[in-house]
Amino acid sequence: MHPKAIDWIIMGTYFAVVLGIGAALKRSMRTSTDFFLSGRAIPAWIAGLAFISANLGAQEVIGMAASGAKYGMATAQFYWVGAIPAMVFLGVFMMPFYYGSRARSVPEYLKLRFDEKTRGLNAITFAVMTVFSSGISLYALALLLRLLLGWDFNTSVSLSALIVLVYIFLGGLTSAIYNEVLQFFLIVFGFAPLVLIGLKDVGGWQGLVAGLHTVARARGFAPDAWLSTWSVMGSPHENPMGIDWFSMAMGLGFVLSFGYWCTDFLVVQRALSAESMDSARRTPLIAAIPKMLFPFLVILPGMIAIAATVHGGASGLTLPRQADGHLNYNMVVPLMLGRYFPNGMLGLGLTALMASFMTGMAGNVTAFNTVWTYDIYQAYIRREASDAHYLTVGRVATVVGIALSVAAAYVTHRFNNIMDLLQLLFAFVNAPLFATFLLGMFWKRTSGHGAFAGLLAGTAAAAVHHGLTLPAGASPGIKGGWIAVMHLYPSPMAQNFWTAIYAFGVCFLVTVGVSLLTQPRPEGELVGLVYSLTPRQDSSAARWYRRPAVLGVCVLAAAVTLNFLFW
Amino acid sequence: MGLDIRIPVGALFSLLGLLLAGYGLHGGAALARRSLGINIDLWWGLVMLVFGVAMLLLAWRARARNR
Predict the structure, then answer these.
(1) Among all residues of chain A, which has the CA nearest to that of B46?
(2) A430-462 as b/e: b if 16+ CB within 10 A
(3) ipTM over 0.90
């Protein structure tokens, strides 16, 4: 890859606009609500685009393309099954309680609904997790820049951390949201031509289908395996993911996706910044529309690359191999950028990648500074201070959060295993969360003790399940089986889905059990926090297509159609 | 919220579109060899320019209406 002046100018223009946005927003950051929640004044379509962009970090872009090559069209299930239903549920059923309770964060909702200890547990684990995720983003960016441009690790880390620091410090959440919108368009404009040229290379859609048939046959699957979703999930041996339809629907479609999209403050914060209840509810629904089309932008490149590698294409594009002889799937995006894009477009592609790394990091930093300030500092360190004081604390937390991310990036650089271990622990902590929210919002009997005990039991269940099972072909250790190997799963993904299913199930049962034995909160305190005690709010929107329920049904119908099209 | 998001989005994409299209027009066939014979810089630059200008027009219209 040989960037020329034009590519640097394109990247430079983007950075100038980013910093310009921060500077222009500085004047409107007067209160802590401006800084942490954009003054609750963001229109639904902007919050919606930010909602998906915050999740679409560059690891996701590169990882989805890699999975597209490895597993084919079934990867789209992470969108059509693993995101859309949960986003619709959040908008239609859950947002009234998040937004309506005036909670400023997800942990704060837990405090209002349950008690201090449940909030504390969630706030502290979430804060640690965001710092490490943002560190991983930074680390991945530095690796990519070294690979593509030959930049030094220290230079990449400090330059990107500095830019993110400046724009969040100046413009708070609004800056982060505006940059997420910018990144959304950059990804669309940067990747659409990659798909178009790639399709031309393999001979159009027909050529791609023929190529993927060859790929599937060469690996011993039915010819359609790389082009289908549900039809190859009858048993784990029929598809390259090693997944059956039940663990797909239950593990990914229910537990993991609802756990992430409905409870993770990183995404929910974008909806909380919306200008009205209706806008907050529309945020995830508007987000769902581009979200369900993203597979064609981020997964298709992987499918094109594998078809070109195995079946052959006009340009002779071939995925490189790793030292152990396996194809290096993570190279799909860098390889295609370098092969198909002339200078100019190359600059645009690189800018899109860098933008998504930085917004991935910025999303974590804005979620961190809010949870730190409202749920840790204000709750446990200084309760009654002026708003100006908390605004300052938020700015300081931004600096500290970024410093910690940089530290985390270096830790990852030196000890890769520590990062694997941490991500595993976070997965255990997150797995049961949705059971707690589901019971809390829809069963008024749920008590604080019940929620807390359920969360701990669910996390323990996840850890024990992981310790007792192993994916086929792995050795006991970080991959599982560190207590004893009682069951072998066909793939790591199957193990992961089942860990989540067990964690959810145990958390659900323990929460119900302990709640029945303990005192519930008086009903008067739960108005606005629990479904059955909150008056139904009809949407105030005049036009039918702006009503959350109508929009939700349309989005679901479209997602179901896509499932059938690629059955 | 102080700043209409369509202004920075419109400005960025108009600028990038102009840069790309200009570069593509200037570079011509030599550039197109990589992208399988399509002068992608020129055409995609024009697409981005149209998008950027549309965003700016929307922002301008909203501002005129609020006044």
Answers:
(1) A189
(2) bbbbbbbbbbbbebbebbbbbbbbbbebbbbbb
(3) yes
